[in-house]
Write a structure and sequence with these properties.
three-stranded parallel sheet; 3 strands; 22% helix
Length: 100
């Protein structure tokens, strides 16, 4: 199922559409975005997944100490994958494109 997002709709409305899509028994949400977009539109969905013991793999090319979305998430809730051989069992794994 594809989400048709109108560019002129409000951020909160789009955020709720994404959350509704993910709550509707979809096991995966793949997003490809331009580098200048904000990821905060996914916060409601990320918190829903974390609170319901679901896994998240967040792939970004942002510099590790400047990942915007991490300003909103407790450090205990995620791990940054620096090595592709590193084994992790955390709910939220963050890595760059090369490590994915």
């Amino acid at each position: 199922m594809a989400i048709n997002i109108n560019m002129f709709r409000g951020k909160e409305e789009v955020s709720q559409d994404i959350l509704r899509y993910c709550r509707n028994k979809h096991d995966r949400l793949n997003v490809i975005s331009y580098f200048y977009n904000t990821a905060t539109i996914f916060l409601a969905t990320i918190f829903y997944y974390l609170n319901n013991s679901k896994s998240i793999v967040y792939i970004t090319n942002e510099v590790e100490d400047k990942i915007e979305i991490l300003n909103h998430i407790n450090k205990e809730k995620y791990v940054y994958l620096k090595d592709s051989l590193q084994e992790v069992k955390d709910k939220m794994i963050i890595c760059n494109y090369n490590r994915a």
